[in-house]
Amino acid sequence: MSAAVAAAAAAANSGSRCNSANSSSSGNENSLLSRQIAVTQPLQPPSRYESQKRRDWNTFGQYLRNHRPPLALNRCSGANVLEFLRYLDQFGKTKVHTQMCPFFGHPHPPAPCPCPLRQAWGSLDALIGRLRAAFEENGGPPETNPFGARAVRLYLREVRDAQAKARGIAYEKKKRKRPQQHQESSSSTDLNSTQPNGGLVMVDSSDHGRPSMIPLSVLN
């Protein structure tokens, strides 16, 4: 009787070791297969927006480090953001006519003039949007986001209005696109729709440029 019990126990132990070995082998094969799949599937490159946002964020960080005295990100305020935007004007490519210029309010000046080049309002507005998102993605609290400060919004509005007058550009906000409605009747079916939304219309910047070293890649 004891011999039969011992034989049964030995058989059970042998079966357990086989099952364990099979499970280990299967687990190793699955792990190897997962690694092979990960290697054969290349990582998707970041989108153009994400790449530009990263460059903008690095550029702003460099600006803070080069500031005299250097500024820490957690001590940055809306006033520092305004300084950064004014600093970018020296690399602008958009002709903004002064009130003394004969081409003030002329959308297509027939001749060159000595008016200064500035950053276009649309470029600054897009830049602030990317930096505002990058600030929160890098751990900054939304309630203290300097790129969303009221002073920054007012500054962008002033730049938009001033450039619209100086360059003779009308910023018109179009109506939003509404869902099409089908009205059925016994005689006919009428389809009503509205004009599509185009947002804010912005005329391209002037091609007049000036030779300078532009160490920034934040704007076009």
From TrEMBL:
Any one Pfam family here would be: ALOG_dom
Keywords assigned = Developmental protein, DNA-binding, Nucleus, Transcription, Transcription regulation
The record ties this protein, via InterPro entries, to:
ALOG, ALOG_dom
Q: Does the keyword Transcription regulation apply?
A: yes
Keyword Lipid metabolism found: no
Bias category Polar residues: which stretches? 182-197
- Extract the ranges annotated as region (Disordered): 11-34, 167-220
Q: Where in the cell is it found?
A: Nucleus
Give start and end of each ALOG domain: 48-175
Family membership noted in the UniProt record: Belongs to the plant homeotic and developmental regulators ALOG protein family.
Report what the protein is called.
ALOG domain-containing protein
Q: Which organism is it from?
A: Vitis vinifera
